Amino acid sequence: MIIFSGGTGTPKLLNGLREVIPEEEITVVVNTAEDIWVSGNLITPDIDTVLYLFSGRIDSSRWWGVKGDTYRTHEAMKALGHNEVMMLGDQDRATHIMRSDYLRSGMTLTEATTQLCSSFGVKATVLPMSDDPVSSIVSTPEGKMHFQDFWVGKHGEPEVLDVCQEGIETASISPAVMDALEDEDEVLIGPSNPITSIGPVIELPGMRNILKNKKVIAVSPIIGNEPVSGPAGKLMAARGIEVSSYGVASYYSDFLDLIVIDKRDRIDDNMFIKLGCHVSRADTLMKSANISTNLSIFIKQIFRDMK
Predict the structure, then answer these.
(1) Virtual torsion, Cα 236, 293, 304, 55, nearest 10 deg
(2) Contacting residues for 235 by C-beta, under 8 A, at least 6 apart
(3) pLDDT along the chain (307 residues), means of 10
(4) What angle do CA 101, 11, 63 make, to 5 degrees?
(5) pLDDT value at residue 119
(6) 99, 95, 101: which is closest to 69 by C-alpha?
C-alpha cells in the first residue's frame, strides 16, 4: 500500500497501519514542500516525523520531534543572538546534519532519506515526493512567507490571502515514487492538510493522471467545518475550497474513489454522489493507538472490497 503523508495527522494513521500491515509492505510518499534550510541544514519535518515513528523515536505527545530530546544547541545559539525559525532538538538536529552532509556529497533527497532509513532501522519504504525543491508559500497582508514562517514563526495568526507551491511546475515526481506507483494499485491519502501537506504531492506534474488509474481512498482531516488540528481550514478557505469533508473530496474528486469521514460528522452522505465518489464513516479522531488500529483495519477491508 502507498500512503501519501504530511503533517501529524497521517503519521497517527501510519501508527495503526503498521499493526495490520507488515512494515515492509508500506510505502510512504511524503510531502517536501514544508522543507526549509535552518542554520545550514535542511529540515524535512514531514519526512522526519515518519522516520521517527517507524524507528520508535517519535515524541507521541506532540507527533513531531524525538521523545526526550534536549535543546542545548538551540539555547546556546539563541544566547549568541541567533534566533532559529524552528526550535530544533539536539538529536533531531543530528538527523538534519547527516541529511545535509549526504546532500552536499551529491546524494539526492531520496538517496539521503534511504540512507537515514537504514541507519534508523526503518523497514517501511519512505520516499520524498520529489528530489526537486518545492516550497509552500503563504500570502498574507504582511507579505509572502514560507509556510514554516507562517505556522511556526507567526503561529498561524496572519490572515491568509492565498497559498501556492513555488517550484511545483518544474518539479518532477521522484523516480522512486514513479516505480512504487507502477507496482502498487492501492493509494491511501492520509488525514493531513489538503493544501500544504497533501496538495504538493498531488499537484506534481502528472500525479493526478496517475491516480486516476489507481484505487484511491482518502481520510478526511475535517469534522463538520473544523480541521482536527492545524491551519487546514484557514488555508482551504483562502483557496476557495469549502472547509468540510465535502470540500476535501471535491479537491480530490478527479481521482478519488472513496472518502472516509468521521462518524460524528453531520454532513449528508448524499452530497458526495455528485462528486462520483463513495463515502464511509468511522472514528477518525485518533486519540489513541487503538482507534488508529481500528481505523486501519477498516480501511484495509475497504481496499479488499474494492478488488
Answers:
(1) 80
(2) 138, 160, 163, 193, 195, 196
(3) 92 94 97 95 96 95 91 94 89 97 98 97 98 96 92 89 95 98 96 93 97 97 81 88 94 96 92 92 92 96 89
(4) 80
(5) 97
(6) 95
| CB contact burial 73-101 (16+ within 10 A = b; e otherwise) | bbeeeeeeeeebebebbeebbebbeebbe
Gap between the Cα atoms of 179 and 246, Å rounded = 31
pTM exceeds 0.90 for this model = yes
C-alpha cell at 294: 481500528
Handedness of CA 62, 66, 72, 76 (dihedral sign): negative
Check residue 182 and give its pLDDT: 96
The x, y and z cell numbers of residue 171, run together, are: 518539479
